[in-house]
Amino acid sequence: xxxxxxxxxxxxxxxxxxxxxxxxxxxxxxxxxxxxxxxxxxxxxxxxxxxxxxxxxxxxxxxxxxxxxxxxxxxxxxxxxxxxxxxxxxxxxxxxxxxxxxxxxxxxxxxxxxxxxxxxxxxxxxxxxxxxxxxxxxxxxxxxxxxxxxxxxxxxxxxxxxxxxxxxxxxxxxxxxxxxxxxxxxxxxxxxxxxxxxxxxxxxxxxxxxxxxxxxxxxxxxxxxxxxxxxxxxxxxxxxxxxxxxxxxxxxxxxxxxxxxxxxx
Length: 265
What we know:
Elements: H1 4-16, H2 23-58, H3 63-73, E1 96-100, E2 103-109, H4 110-113, E3 118-123, E4 133-138, H5 141-150, H6 153-156, E5 161-165, E6 177-178, E7 183-188, E8 193-198, E9 203-210, H7 214-218, E10 230-232, E11 239-245, H8 251-260, E12 262-263
Parallel strand pairs: 4-5
Antiparallel strand pairs: 1-2, 2-4, 3-5, 6-12, 7-8, 8-9, 9-11, 10-11
Keywords: Membrane, Transmembrane, Transmembrane helix
Transmembrane segments: 43-63
């Protein structure tokens, strides 16, 4: 004899059985649909790739070019392009360089430069395409000065020396003053300067200046006089000398040194 509650449950289950999702059927359908989508995507990609290859072939772009382009695009970010100076060919004696702004440069060896009436204005401390050579600049004076003082010639030709035509000449051709006892001076007349040292180690500098500048120097408190670090001689012919303090020299010692200098003629 059937239990009424059990019979009721059985009948209810049978009545709603077709309303529950059939998970196995749904899963199988989803997998099948997914496979169809993936097949369509593979077909689409294959057709697209074939079209791209055809387009590159029609445009004359070879596969190797395409690969090379990709390799460049993927180069490390830190990779630096070679500098212009790195590829600069070594100089050779006899070359004539057009360095711009109406300035030309004659290339000579450093040994040849020793026999020429020139002034070396700048020297590269590196080694490279310019080692052993001097470039002698010629052209408009302002442009020449700009080239040797502010241009990139020293970078373009590492190791080179830059010179200008004509030997540098100082304001005098012989030592103009005698230093007092207890002082020793080493002169560079081409630069119009001397470096002086006292017996107790004090240092002072001498600079020969044109007489036309004396008015400015003698009336400027920051250029000469007590507390300025410099004293002046009187004008002698076309020049005067400024005496400048250095390490270990007091203001009183500097004044005494300046007043003790004696003209040699």
